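Proteins fold reproducibly. Look at a concrete instance:
___
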Amino acid sequence: MGGAPPGCATIVAYKNNKGAAVSEHLSRKELKQDKIHDAIEHGAEAFYLHKQLTLIALLVVLMGAVVYGSYTVYHDRQTAAAQAALDAGMKAYDGRIGGTPDPQDPTDISYADENARSADALNKFNVVAAKYPNTRPGEQAHYYSALCLESLERHNEALENLKKLISSSDKELSSMAQYQMGVIYERTGKPDDAAKAFRELAEKRSVFVPRPLALLELANVLRQNNPKEAASVYQQIKKEFPDTTISEQADRGLDLLAPKS
């Protein structure tokens, strides 16, 4: 009594099962939607962060380009100013001795003697070297300052200037400085130091101080205290550079070494 017909019980049970299935289906659907939502959210965050990092990288590159461009413009201007100042020093260095200035050339310079010329040029080169030390004309000014100091017989100061150029990135300027050091050592009675400088130069194969010149200077220095080695170097010059002016000078060096009858 009061019991539901068997068919009704079956229907209720079916409905309950269907509701559970629908509920489970909705839960899975919502879960899937949440995952999609999270994926979209994380993707958006990743895109935003990637966009930020890309922007930062671009800004860093741009700043680097601006800094490099500014430095390049600054360095070029410094080099141009240094070159103009070096040219003024060279004009003094090549100035005439005696006579009167050319009235047709207001920039013409003449000096009473070589000391006056060297002193004036030295002052100008020193200004360039001090004001523009990181430019090529600034380094060249050190070299010409040394030549002026040598002319004024201030040999130790000249050597100090030349030593600053030995480690220069300009290999030719470095070789020229080392050659001049060898010349000063020879003139001031330091043949061993002179021979060392010329020997090293002979192995550098410089354009401005070629190997045959360095070997000839080496042989000339050795001739005073080591005639046997000097003769060997002269012969080496003749073998390596036959039929040249340097070879002819080597012949004259050998003649000087020959015993007098």
